[in-house]
């Protein structure tokens, strides 16, 4: 026979008497005491700390006693031989601590209320302790592009290690390894790398937890620098060039000791060198040959050695010869009524802006007029003037063939039907000045100053005829 009695209080001790009744007669009673099952209505909070890897704390709120009677709480780590702990119902310290546990282990936690030896249905929780840290990180191998890391294996439960670092482009790199070592290559030389190693427990599960990370900074070794950037010519003159370059700090790969520029005429085996300091970004190369194609190669240097070559080809322009001194001009060394002999020397003009390839003699009766233009009048062009302006005697010529000076006679040709330049006769008894023009190219020329004035001989032919 079953009898259901409801609306009882949880955890309360009840006494029952049972009687048999027949025709208004009642038997002696049989007594029974029993206790209802208590309930637990507490909020449970599991406390773990990455600094306290062997300790687990349980915080709880009190179960309200208006609807339940119980005398204590019971806490147990299931599946272990660790003794359970109990707290009285009215204990105001609502923190339970389990010590000397295994770092990184997953524990099953059960909490009951107990009333007179009767247990409630438990609240079950799971919690994983933080794993131990690895301790010191070591680097048994460091090169310019590679670092190998090792660390001690910590106590406790663990499934692997997570290693993080930031590469030279700012990307966060993460790797997981089950071994207590890892190698990284392809690193930037002479660069600081900070590595963080964390122990993983419960990897690839819902209870994965990372231990307190340990960091260590290592520095890769120096290497040769990268290739110089933006190697350009910013100023080009006939016999010198100004070069400019840059090398980003990210490509230096060490402490720069300087830059070396190798230069040579294209196709030549004769190489020359110019050194510049590590902070210099512009340099001048002098004493070059005008009109030649030069190859310039630049390399940055560290103590390890030179970096990659950046190459530049540049044709040096021809320039007009440098202006001679004011006391350099041709001299008159002979004359007749229609001719004049002048002398000039090869060293009147420097070859520093290019080899002088031609000379021309310029004659003027009226030297006040401009004579600096490239195209000067010819002898025939000036015949219409009473006083001849500056004119060019002939096409450019090169008179120095193993000689250092030359004597040139003006006025030796018959220019009656001549086209272009012609060395026609001078006027008798007339004062002239001359100068010499030197060419490195048809449009590149320089003149000496005019000579002293000289006068052709008077024509006495008519007087003798009389």
UniProtKB/TrEMBL annotation:
Annotated protein name in UniProt: protein-tyrosine-phosphatase
A Pfam family that the UniProt record links to this protein: PTP_tm
EC number(s) from the headed UniProt entry: 3.1.3.48
Organism: Nephila pilipes
UniProt cross-references to InterPro entries, sorted A to Z: FN3_dom, FN3_sf, Ig-like_fold, PTPRJ_TM, RTP_Phos/Ushers
GO molecular function, one term: protein tyrosine phosphatase activity
Superkingdom per UniProt: Eukaryota
Fibronectin type-III domain location: 133-223, 224-323
GO cellular component: a single term: membrane
Broadest EC class assigned to this enzyme: hydrolase
């Amino acid at each position: 026979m079953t009898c259901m009695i409801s609306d009882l209080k949880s955890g309360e001790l009840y006494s029952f008497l049972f009687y048999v009744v027949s025709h208004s007669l009642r038997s002696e009673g049989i007594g029974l005491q029993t206790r209802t099952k208590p309930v637990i209505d507490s909020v449970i909070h599991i406390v773990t700390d990455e600094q306290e890897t062997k300790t687990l704390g349980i915080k709880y709120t009190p179960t309200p006693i208006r609807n339940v009677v119980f005398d204590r709480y019971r806490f147990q780590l299931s599946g272990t031989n660790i003794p359970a702990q109990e707290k009285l119902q009215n204990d105001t310290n609502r923190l339970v601590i389990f010590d000397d546990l295994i770092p990184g282990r997953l524990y099953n936690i059960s909490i009951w209320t107990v009333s007179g030896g009767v247990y409630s249905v438990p609240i079950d929780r799971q919690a994983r302790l933080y794993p131990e840290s690895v301790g010191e990180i070591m680097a048994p191998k460091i090169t310019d592009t590679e670092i190998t890391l090792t660390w001690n294996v910590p106590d406790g439960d663990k499934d692997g290690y997570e290693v993080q670092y930031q590469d030279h482009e700012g990307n966060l790199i993460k790797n997981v390894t089950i071994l207590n070592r890892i190698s990284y290559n392809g690193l930037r030389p002479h660069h600081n790398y900070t590595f963080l190693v964390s122990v993983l427990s419960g990897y690839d599960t819902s209870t994965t937890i990372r231990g307190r990370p340990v960091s260590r900074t290592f520095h890769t070794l120096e290497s040769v620098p990268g290739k110089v950037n933006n190697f350009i010519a910013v100023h080009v003159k006939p016999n010198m060039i100004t070069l400019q370059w840059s090398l980003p700090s990210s490509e230096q790969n060490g402490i720069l000791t300087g830059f070396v520029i190798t230069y040579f005429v294209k196709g030549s085996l004769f190489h020359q060198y110019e050194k510049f300091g590590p902070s210099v970004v512009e340099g001048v190369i002098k004493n070059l040959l005008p009109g030649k194609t030069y190859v310039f190669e630049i390399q940055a240097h560290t103590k390890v050695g030179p970096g990659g070559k950046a190459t530049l080809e540049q044709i040096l322009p021809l320039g007009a010869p440098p202006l001679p001194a004011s006391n350099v001009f041709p001299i008159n060394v002979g004359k007749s009524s229609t001719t004049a002999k002048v002398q000039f020397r090869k060293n009147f003009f420097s070859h520093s802006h290019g080899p002088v390839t031609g000379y021309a003699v310029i004659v003027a009766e009226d030297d006040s007029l401009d004579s600096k233009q490239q195209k000067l009048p010819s002898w025939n062009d000036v015949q219409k003037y009473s006083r001849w302006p500056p004119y060019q005697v002939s096409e450019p010529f090169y008179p120095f063939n193993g000689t250092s000076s030359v004597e040139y006679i003006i006025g030796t040709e018959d220019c009656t039907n001549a086209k272009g330049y012609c060395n026609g006769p001078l006027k008798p008894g007339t004062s002239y000045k001359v100068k010499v023009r030197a060419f490195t190219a048809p449009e590149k020329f320089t003149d000496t100053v005019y000579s002293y004035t000289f006068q052709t001989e008077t024509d006495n032919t008519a007087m003798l005829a009389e």
